[in-house]
Design a protein that fits this description.
Chain B: It is an enzyme of class 1 (oxidoreductase). The complex is a heterodimer of chains A (about 325) and B (about 375). Chain A has about 325 residues and is α/β, with parallel strands linked by helices. Chain A has two domains: about 180 residues, Thiamin diphosphate (ThDP)-binding fold, Pyr/PP domains (Rossmann fold, 3-Layer(aba) Sandwich), CATH 3.40.50; about 130 residues, Rossmann fold. Chain A contains twelve helices and 14 strands. A five-stranded mixed sheet of chain A has the order 9-11-10-13-14, with helices on both faces. In chain A, strands 5-7-6-12 form a four-stranded mixed sheet. The chains are: A alpha/beta (about 325), B alpha/beta (about 375).
């Protein structure tokens, strides 16, 4: 098995599916010769040709519309939005069109589209490059929203997304692209969308997280263990639809929970997870379910990023409130 | 010094001077541009006229059915028959049509059963279930969104090596949207086989054409995308047909997309949902445009050839009325929509939330 970074695992997933299905097309801004600004598509144009892996004019709405038209011709488009902060330019294509096609045509047409895009903070980008907008996507009926936290999960989930006959938003945290390596099988494998993963087992508290916050949560769990607490960390992996069975089973085991997200606290995924727990497992709870999230400002300028982003210390602080309630 | 003239204003004037409305048949039904008169057979000419007359009846009946509460959302089409049906007449069965919401006639003549068009109007998803082998999309609601999707369909056709084209329609207002520019630009960059129509019916709801842009013509917007573009008399079926046929031939030959502006007019309101055109148009303007009517001039042209008569026209009108009545009957038979139906068409496989909601609504609906 090869040791891969997350970005290598993503490239490997794209290569696997380009090989597996001739209808798969990879396109976007600078994804061709340049291999993408983060090199996610490195070498793919050379290997599969300009007909399958191609650059687009610089217009996100155009990329979304192109994906729709290609899907209508039986292709399986995998467009890249260069940074997810640019998604506002393509919101009609995503929410107004792609998410609704199966529905508005009563099942005549479907949209087997996977929109890949980097997001997430901590790498000192200019404005509009780091925002966590998964909540915006998750609120749109018709979309699935996937956020891997490890190279192994990234490959398996991306292959599942590309093979899915409905649209998937696949968000890749910038800070995780090259932060560590992991053994990743060279062959094709899938991880089901909508399935969470218990990244660490525990008995006293469940932490639900996704993306970079999975790693902050694991770090917090280690620290808490030194103080005698056994903490479970559940990586949601898919934030829409949620893996309700895994979430509820974990809460019923530990009787205490917190939910961690990098995004601002208002609305959002964490609030939804809390609501589901309240509706389904309130009698199992020994304490209120609390959230760790960023403050409700616009995503900050790079110099303020590190004070703004939630980290393991914030998680420990909130975890203790719940553990000692 | 290169000696080149610095004259940005002159360049614009020069380009704009090239855009003159292309016409073959004038408003009196006379051929003013004989070298371009298409070689359509007598049967084809009669068929095109039949479709225009039929569609005028369909428009009148749709308006009255709407007023009786028997149809829902409806965007009137009278005045645009040449623009809509003569362009469609130049297409082939395997061409793809991406319509706006006023472009129901084209998709009906392309194969959408009329009763389904009525169900679309009534707001039933069965109206949007497109029969196998009919290459159309349901009418687009977001102005201009169909333009960029047409670029995608056209690129897909090119990748498949098809000899068909993607055809899309918007209005004068639509030509101001970002997706309009992205659509013609993407299709141009990929040399994709697309035909883009701007049906310039002079008003985007109430906003007149002049408020949309400083450009003298909407057709000239194609210049910036590097694609052929032309302005035609949209009340002249022959000019619209010839321009479309020409664009289609180039598209199929691998020469990429064309932008066609059809100068036309909608006689009725924007939609039947409360628009009052007297707030923004005068009767004089209406009367001026009525003189240019596409059916009137084509009737004269065909009568001159001995191909059309009052009896023939009455026959078409009666047939249209009869078929519309039958289509309404079929539309009336559509099953009542349920929430469980709506849940079932959301995904190939339902996620947990919809599965749960399906059961809840199934129980409610069985009461």
């Amino acid at each position: 098995m090869a040791q891969m970074t997350m970005i290598q695992a993503i490239t490997d997933a794209l290569r696997t599916e380009l090989k597996n299905d001739e209808n798969v097309l990879v396109f976007g801004e600078d994804v061709g010769v340049n291999g993408g600004v983060f090199r996610a598509t490195e070498g793919l144009q050379k290997e599969f040709g300009v007909d399958r892996v191609f650059d687009t004019p610089l217009a996100e709405s155009g990329i979304g519309g192109l994906a729709i038209g290609l899907a209508l011709q039986g292709f399986r488009p995998v467009p890249e939005i260069q940074f997810f902060g640019f998604v506002y330019e393509v919101m009609d294509s995503i929410s107004g069109q792609i998410a609704r096609y199966r529905f508005r045509t009563g099942g005549t047409f479907n949209m087997p589209i996977t929109i890949r895009s980097p997001f997430g903070g901590g790498v000192h980008t200019p404005e509009m490059h780091s925002d966590s907008l998964e909540g915006l996507m998750a609120q749109q009926p018709g979309l699935k929203v996937v956020i891997p936290s490890t190279p192994y999960d990234a490959k398996g989930l991306l292959i599942s997304a590309i093979r899915d006959n409905d649209p998937v938003i696949f968000l890749e945290h910038l800070k995780l692209y090259r932060s560590f390596r992991q053994e990743v099988p060279e062959e094709a494998y899938t991880i089901p969308i909508g399935k969470a993963d218990v990244k660490r087992e525990g008995k006293d508290l469940s932490i639900f997280a996704y993306g970079l916050m999975v790693h902050e949560s694991l770090k917090a769990a280690e620290e808490l263990e030194k103080e005698g607490y056994s903490v479970e960390v559940v990586d949601l992996r898919t934030v829409q639809p949620l893996d309700i069975d895994t979430i509820i089973a974990s809460v019923e085991k530990t009787n205490r929970a917190i939910v961690v997200q990098e995004a601002q606290k208002q609305a959002g995924i964490a609030a939804n997870v809390v609501s589901e727990i309240m509706e389904r497992a309130v009698l199992s709870l020994e304490a209120p379910v609390l959230r760790v999230a960023a403050p409700d400002t616009i995503y900050p300028f790079p110099q303020a990023e590190n004070v703004w982003l939630p980290n393991y210390k914030d998680i420990i602080e909130t975890a203790k409130k719940v553990l000692t309630f | 010094m290169s000696g080149k003239v610095f004259d940005p204003k002159g360049v614009l004037q020069d380009v704009e001077s090239k855009f003159e409305m292309f016409q073959i048949l004038n408003e009196n039904g006379e051929v003013v541009n004989p070298e371009y008169e298409p070689k359509l057979s007598d049967e084809e000419l009669v068929e095109l006229m039949t479709r225009m007359v039929y569609t005028r009846v369909l428009d009148q009946r749709s308006i009255s059915l709407n007023r009786q509460g028997r149809l829902g959302f409806y965007a009137p089409t009278a005045g645009q028959e040449a623009s809509q049906l003569a362009s469609h007449f130049a297409l082939e069965k395997d061409d793809w049509i991406l319509p706006g919401y006023r472009d129901v006639p084209q998709i009906v003549w392309h194969g959408l059963p009329l009763w389904k068009a009525f169900l679309f109007s009534r707001g039933h998803f069965i109206g949007n279930q497109i029969p196998e082998g009919v290459n159309i999309l349901p009418p687009q609601i977001i102005i201009g969104a169909q333009y960029i999707q047409a670029a995608g369909v056209a690129l897909g056709i090119k990748k498949r090596g098809g000899k068909n084209v993607a055809v899309t329609y918007t209005g004068d207002g639509g030509s101001s949207q970002g997706d309009f520019y992205e659509g013609i630009n993407f299709a141009g960059a990929y040399k994709a086989p697309a035909i883009f129509f701007i049906q310039n019916n002079q008003y985007a709801i109430s906003t007149p054409r002049d408020i949309q842009t400083a450009a003298k013509t909407l057709a000239q917007k194609g210049i910036a995308a590097g694609i052929p573009c032309v302005q035609v008399d949209g009340m002249d079926p022959l000019a619209v047909y010839v321009a479309t046929k020409d664009a289609r031939e180039r598209a199929v030959a691998g020469e990429g997309p064309t932008l066609i502006e059809t100068i036309c007019y909608r006689y009725g309101p924007h939609t039947m949902s409360g628009d009052d055109p007297t707030r923004y148009r005068t009767e004089d303007i209406d009367n001026e445009w009525a003189k240019k009517d596409p059916i009137v001039r084509f009737r004269k042209y065909l009568e001159g050839k001995g191909l059309w008569s009052e009896e023939k026209e009455t026959e078409v009108i009666e047939r249209a009325k009869e078929e519309i009545k039958e289509a309404i009957k079929l539309a009336d038979q559509a099953p009542k929509q349920t929430v469980t139906d709506l849940i079932s068409i959301m995904h190939e496989e339902l996620p947990f939330n919809l599965k749960e909601q399906y059961e809840i609504y199934k129980a409610k609906e069985s009461k």
